[in-house]
Amino acid sequence: MSDETIIGGVPIEIIKKKNLKNLYIRVNPPEGNVTVSSPYDYPDGEIRLFVLKKIPEIIKVRDRMLSQTRQTEREYVSGESHYLWGKPYRLQVVYEGNRYVITKAPNKLILTAPKGASKEAREQAFTEWYRQELKRVLEGLTAKCESKTNLHANEYKIKNMKTKWGTCNVDKKRVWINLQLAKKPVECLEYVVIHELIHLTEKNHTHRFYSLVEDAYPTWKEAQKLLKTMPLDYIEKGELLENEEQSNFE
């Protein structure tokens, strides 16, 4: 069951679900649409009061989301710009052979693909190449971050998330890293790994949490600023992966 209303001057979509126990507010990319997920029998007045208390934070997150540049949709054709570790490269596509190979030159990326390869196939080749690049760098970086934090994760996994740079399953000590970080400077990846590791000892974003991040990575604010100012990947309206949200206020 869903309903649309205006709360504090902000359009809000309220979605009531039978299996929920708490209220959740999400600011969804790319246009900053706001949704509230609520238990089915939660009183409308209490939902409204809850949202009103969060309006300043909602507006702040939405404005930041709308102000950050996003790339246009990539077609994976010659002449496009593609990022790797914070640096833009010009793409050159060569159609020959029967394999997909991506080669990095000083200022360009060369994609060799079979003749007639579809856009989806070329995109998948890039996705897997970014995954290998990120995996390669993570192998050395995770040990460094664990040493700085004196914390250890049982497992690091890579996922092409649309709205989160990383997540941490505290119970399983599993850290998920966004595939898109292969496009950002390495210091951004280091910041995200440390950020998620700190969640193993401090679940919420408390003052203590940020104090621990500061101790482990004193330049974290510079890395965070890069994440907030560099162009984001293209995303279609409504294109969210399962269990993801840009901003979640409980």
Task: Give a quick rundown of the structure.
The chain is α/β, with parallel strands linked by helices. The chain has helices at residues 44-67, 119-149, 186-198, 207-216, 220-229, and strands at residues 2-7, 10-17, 24-28, 33-39, 81-84, 87-95, 101-104, 108-113, 155-159, 166-169, 174-178, 248-249.
The rounded Rg comes to: 20 Å
The DSSP helix count reads: 5
Query: Which strand-content bin applies to the residues?
Result: 25-35%
Average pLDDT number? 88
Q: What level of helicity do the residues show?
A: 25-40%
Helix-strand string: EEEEHEEEEHEEEHHHE
The biggest beta sheet, please?
5 strands, mixed
Poorly predicted runs are: 236-250
Can you give a write-up of this model?
- With 250 residues, the chain is of the alpha/beta class.
- The chain has 5 helices and 12 strands.
- It has helices at residues 44-67, 119-149, 186-198, 207-216, 220-229, and strands at residues 2-7, 10-17, 24-28, 33-39, 81-84, 87-95, 101-104, 108-113, 155-159, 166-169, 174-178, 248-249.
- Strands 1-2-4-3-12 form a 5-stranded mixed beta sheet, covered by helices on one side. It has a 4-stranded mixed beta sheet with strand order 5-6-8-7, with helices on one face.
- A hairpin with a 2-residue loop joins strand 1 and strand 2.
- Residues 236-250 have low confidence and may be disordered.
SSE order and pairing:
Blueprint lengths: L1 E6 L2 E8 L6 E5 L4 E7 L4 H24 L13 E4 L2 E9 L5 E4 L3 E6 L5 H31 L5 E5 L6 E4 L4 E5 L7 H13 L8 H10 L3 H10 L18 E2 L1
Parallel strand pairs: 2-4, 6-8, 9-11
Antiparallel strand pairs: 1-2, 3-4, 3-12, 5-6, 7-8, 10-11
Helix pairs in contact: 2-3, 3-4
